[in-house]
Amino acid sequence: MNKQPKVNIGDRSVGEGESVYVIGEIGINHNGSLELAKKLITGAKAAGCDAVKFQKRTPELCVPKDQWNKGRDTPWGRITYLEYRHKVELSFEDFKVIDIFCKQLQIDWFASCWDEPSVDFMEHFEPKCYKAASASLTDISLLKKKLSTGKPLILSTGMSTEDEIDNAVSELGSENVLIAHSTSAYPCSVDELNLKMILTLKNKYPEIPIGYSGHETGLAPTWAAVTLGATFVERHITLDRAMWGTDQAASVEIAGLHRLIGNIRDIEKSLGDGIKKVYESEMSQRNKLRRVKDIA
């Protein structure tokens, strides 16, 4: 199989032979609070994340009109769904603070933009790349808008057929594109993770870096994804899985994030290069225990 090329996200090269790029998906787990967002960024940096990711929507464009006035119980009381969507959106001023904060901590940040005006909004901050949520995989106009910025684009493939993935790649091409295997269930049952799709995608798109966006409650499947060759991984993160919010239960708390990333780094080291060798650390045992030392 051909080596996948490398795509540069900020100062990091992502692809075969490179250290796994780890994304802490804050998403909307900040619940509209800048202070909570900053705590999550700080936790992600301390755990060793390479980047954090947010979500950005224009609620009037992303929420179907028949859903606007439906009631929802929230921390702000019972409000309409449209009002709720506005409550969990961070403002331009909030993102200005986040941009400065991430630069100070030296951690990349970017966003999944769910509509085209949100891409224009994010361009003010010159993010390192863009993400397309699984729900947006068939919105070719939006995908092209993101790619037209010149930034790398990560495509998530949950809730999608192989034909839909093929079509997106056909429309976009492979340059500056990365693909994340995913299953869009929150949280996702382990028997629906289908991690071998990572191998399928690597074989089908050898010119595109393949990664994994996980929504499971445990850590082992993400480690398995790295073993299968994921060049980047993304997990939702939270300060407390019991917090209010739709994505909290499928998220990793900061203590777990430390374990997740620490073991990813150990897995990278342990995989090696596949070339058999005799290590210096084996020589004393070899000299002591091997009775027949040479093979003719």
- CATH H-tier superfamily: Aldolase class I
Uncertain stretches of 5 or more adjacent residues: none
What are the secondary-structure elements, in order, as H or E? Answer: EEEHEHEEHHEHEHEHEHEHEEHH
Ends distance = 33 Å
Short structural description:
This protein has 296 residues and is α/β, with parallel strands linked by helices.
Description:
The structure is a single chain. This protein is of the alpha/beta class and 296 residues long. The chain has a single domain, classed as Alpha-Beta Barrel (TIM Barrel). Helix content is 36%, strand content 20%. The protein contains eleven helices and 13 strands. It has helices at residues 34-47, 59-62, 81-87, 92-105, 116-123, 140-147, 162-172, 197-204, 220-227, 254-271, 283-289; strands at residues 7-9, 12-14, 21-27, 51-56, 71-74, 77-80, 108-113, 130-132, 153-156, 177-182, 210-214, 232-238, 252-253. The strands form three sheets. It has an eight-stranded parallel barrel, surrounded by seven helices. Strands 1-2 form a two-stranded antiparallel sheet. α7 (162-172) links the parallel β9 and β10. α1 (34-47) runs parallel beside α4 (92-105), α1 (34-47) packs parallel to α10 and α9 packs parallel to α10 (254-271). It is globular, with a radius of gyration of 21 Å. The mean pLDDT is 94.
